[in-house]
């Protein structure tokens, strides 16, 4: 590529396109040709900058000059002044709320300002494949403190006092879990510690990030748990789809063994502890604790009835402590800084922080850790940077296939275990998917139920048959075959499954359906009664139409249509053959005049 | 070799000094986000290029390390340069080509390459690489 002295970025997101950025590109190129500088300049149409209210947005590099609300009339002057004479066109530079600037460090961003990193403290800072770096950041100091100066009961009391609750979703008090396993009597004295790293919720990657970024924290925390409950052996159950996490964890285990941190007589004490990785083959149900234990034992990954609880009869019928990756990642920090320090963060009943994987219709997709009690609004608008393309927020989904959707009216909910349950969702492991006005909530419920139905192990009838029946009803509703009474039938089935399924998968599977019915009943009713999908997602309920008055007959849509469903003479309005149309939406994107609609 | 507590303490002090590069000592610690998100965005060639150039230019005071998820997946590959006062500069959307300039300007001459840092307007990071 030839050297370009300047790059001009023009926002090509939906917002800026509708305010005319496409014609700006053409005008800009025309002016550059006029001044004979087109060879020196590269014009790039970019994705949404997230600043739709300032659009169309134009940025000129290398200076990084940020022009807002540029009109086609401004272009000749911009080219002449900025690109030919090299003078910034002050009147168009965005200055209202602070000019475009270059923060030197990522920590200066709003994304990080409301965060508090405890579980992720080392992620993105240390080299995860070098035990010395972990040690350099106070690694294994907590294990040293525990082994040399605390009794097992003192360790458990510290964890209890910290108020730490299970980060895998259930929110059971971790210290209490440890106490049960500590008190449980094993016939031959053998007990186990296990780590649940079978992260399966769609869109969730918290545990993967901890294992990839700070694997030694898990090794250290599991050793501490082993000391507290009297176990000598630990298993980490990781899904095989996480090759980098597995690789780094194995390196960490090997390094710890080499240093004598895992193995016999750690630090010259009587404590002996060893760790082993077990790979999951990808069944979602294996994230459920009893199914996970079956899988570790080499059996079919199906849940067992509880009681007996794992703390009494877990792995190989021995008392077992099973915690999630993120739960463990907090343990060394609690031991080192004290329970009071940890309990000072968070809300009354949910202490500490929570890691979320933020995804969906949000500007700043990423991994974040916030103190419990942060509101959904702060997460979405301050940390997440809002919704792209100037769209309206509709709902946030927490807890994955076990959780529910929180509508705009609950944006000020303070996030903690109990508030989310009160709102009809759950904390879950930390996936947070943001949805905007273009998402159909019936379709979302259908998506999650299809997932859980597919992943149901089939052991208990309520889950195996009940979720199937629910899915069939949802398929009918989305397919335009919904009937009066379907909503009530869904609710009845949901309550039955919730109260009778064997394990957490089935007990929570109806949640996405129930919460969308609760908050978005009007969308269900529109599908059933009016046979309309208000968000324009459910294809069976859509009809694509070309508006006669605005169609210029350019033929672009007909050329792009993959099934040749569009026909018409040049320069005359085209028509769509609804029999042939597969409702793929390609024509809507291709039409330069916005003449094609779906309704 | 099993390590005693005293040996661990020695490692801790030595490493902390290396990582924080002790005040007054010259040099940089360069970390590359190499979690799944970073690798998927192309962090590996960036890391390789960094190591090659540091070695080729014999920059003895520069250490290059991989690290986990820095948090903002959409800005990956991310390279962060920590100076001797533990202040850091974040370069985003890095490529092997950009590495050359960062090495020559920042690591050799000490000048931050502003054009590879983030551009923020109205609190939002402008993503200049995503083509519409």
From TrEMBL, chain A:
The keyword GTP-binding does not apply. Residues 542-571, 572-599 form the 4Fe-4S ferredoxin-type domain. Keywords: 4Fe-4S, Iron, Iron-sulfur, Metal-binding. SMART domains: NADH_4Fe-4S. SUPFAM superfamilies: 4Fe-4S ferredoxins, Nqo1 FMN-binding domain-like, Nqo1 middle domain-like, Nqo1C-terminal domain-like, Thioredoxin-like. Belongs to the complex I 51 kDa subunit family. This is 4Fe-4S dicluster domain-containing protein. It comes from Acetobacterium tundrae.
Automatic annotation (TrEMBL), chain B:
SUPFAM superfamilies: Thioredoxin-like (SSF52833). Signal peptide: none annotated. Pfam families: 2Fe-2S_thioredx (PF01257). InterPro entries: Thioredoxin-like_sf. Keywords: Iron, Iron-sulfur, Metal-binding. The keyword Protein biosynthesis does not apply. Transmembrane segments: none annotated. The keyword Iron-sulfur applies. PANTHER family: NADH-QUINONE OXIDOREDUCTASE SUBUNIT F. This is (2Fe-2S) ferredoxin domain-containing protein. The lineage of its organism: Bacteria, Bacillati, Bacillota, Clostridia, Eubacteriales.
């Amino acid at each position: 590529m030839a050297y370009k002295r300047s790059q001009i970025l023009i926002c090509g997101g939906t917002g800026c396109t509708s305010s005319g950025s496409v014609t700006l590109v053409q005008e800009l190129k025309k002016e550059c040709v006029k001044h004979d500088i087109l060879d020196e300049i590269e014009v790039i149409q970019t994705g949404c900058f997230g600043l739709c209210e300032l659009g169309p947005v134009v940025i000129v590099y290398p200076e990084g000059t940020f022009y807002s609300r540029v009109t086609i009339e401004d272009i000749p002057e911009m080219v002449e002044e900025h690109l030919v004479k090299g003078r910034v066109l002050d009147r168009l530079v965005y200055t209202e709320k602070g000019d475009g600037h270059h923060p030197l460090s990522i920590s200066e961003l709003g994304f990080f300002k409301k965060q508090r990193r405890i579980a992720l403290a080392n992620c993105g800072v240390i080299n995860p494949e070098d035990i010395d770096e972990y040690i350099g950041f106070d690694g294994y100091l907590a294990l040293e403190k525990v082994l040399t100066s605390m009794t097992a009961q003192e360790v458990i009391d510290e964890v209890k006092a910290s108020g730490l609750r299970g980060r895998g979703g259930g929110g059971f008090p971790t210290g209490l879990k440890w106490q049960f396993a500590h008190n449980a009597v094993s016939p031959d004295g053998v007990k186990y510690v296990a780590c649940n790293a079978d992260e399966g919720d769609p869109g969730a990657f918290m545990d993967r990030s901890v294992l990839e970024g700070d694997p030694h924290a898990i090794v250290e925390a599991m050793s501490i748990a082993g000391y507290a409950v009297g176990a000598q052996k630990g298993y980490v159950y990781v899904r095989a789809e996480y090759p980098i996490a597995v690789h780094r964890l194995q390196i960490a285990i090997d390094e710890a063994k080499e240093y004598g941190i895992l193995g016999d007589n750690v630090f010259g004490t009587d404590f002996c502890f060893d760790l082993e990785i077990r790979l999951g083959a990808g069944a979602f149900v294996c994230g459920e604790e009893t199914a996970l234990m079956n899988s570790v034992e080499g059996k079919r990954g199906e849940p067992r009835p509880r009681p007996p609880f794992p703390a009494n009869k877990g792995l190989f019928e021995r008392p077992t402590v099973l915690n999630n990756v993120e739960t463990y990642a907090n343990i060394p920090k609690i031991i080192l800084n004290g329970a009071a320090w940890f309990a000072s963060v968070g809300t009354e009943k949910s202490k500490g922080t929570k890691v979320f994987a933020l995804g969906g219709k949000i500007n700043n997709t990423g991994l974040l850790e916030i103190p419990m009690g942060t509101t959904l609004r702060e997460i979405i608008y301050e940390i997440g940077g809002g919704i792209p393309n100037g769209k309206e927020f509709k709902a946030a989904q927490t807890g994955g296939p076990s959780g529910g959707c929180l509508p705009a009216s609950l944006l000020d909910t303070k996030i903690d275990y109990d508030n989310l349950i009160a709102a009809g969702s759950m904390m879950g492991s930390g996936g947070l998917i943001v949805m905007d006005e273009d998402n159909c909530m019936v379709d979302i419920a259908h998506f999650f139920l299809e997932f859980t139905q597919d992943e149901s192990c089939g052991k208990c009838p309520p889950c195996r048959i009940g979720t199937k029946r629910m899915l069939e009803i949802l398929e009918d509703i989305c397919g335009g075959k919904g009937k009066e009474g379907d909503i009530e039938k869904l609710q009845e089935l949901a309550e039955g499954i919730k109260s009778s399924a064997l394990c957490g998968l089935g007990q929570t599977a109806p949640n996405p359906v129930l919460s969308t019915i609760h908050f978005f009943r009007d969308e269900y009713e529109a599908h059933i009664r009016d046979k309309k999908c208000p968000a324009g997602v459910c294809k069976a309920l859509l009809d694509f139409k070309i508006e006669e008055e605005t169609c210029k007959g350019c033929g672009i849509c007909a050329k792009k249509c993959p099934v040749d469903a569009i026909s018409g003479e040049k320069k005359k309005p085209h028509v769509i053959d609804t029999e042939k149309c597969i409702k793929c939406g390609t024509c809507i994107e291709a039409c330069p005049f916005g003449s094609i609609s779906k309704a | 070799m099993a390590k005693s507590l005293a040996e661990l303490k020695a490692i801790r002090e030595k490493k902390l000094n290396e990582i924080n590069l002790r005040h007054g000592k010259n040099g940089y610690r360069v970390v590359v986000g190499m979690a799944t998100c970073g690798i998927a965005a192309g962090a590996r060639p960036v890391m390789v290029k960094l190591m090659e150039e540091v070695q080729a230019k014999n920059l003895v005071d520069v250490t290059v390390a991989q690290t986990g998820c820095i948090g903002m997946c959409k800005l990956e590959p991310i390279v962060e340069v920590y100076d001797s006062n533990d202040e850091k500069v974040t370069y985003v959307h890095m490529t092997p080509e950009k590495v050359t300039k960062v090495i020559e300007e920042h690591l050799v001459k000490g000048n931050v390459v502003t054009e590879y840092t983030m551009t923020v307007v109205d609190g939002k990071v402008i993503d200049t690489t995503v083509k519409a």
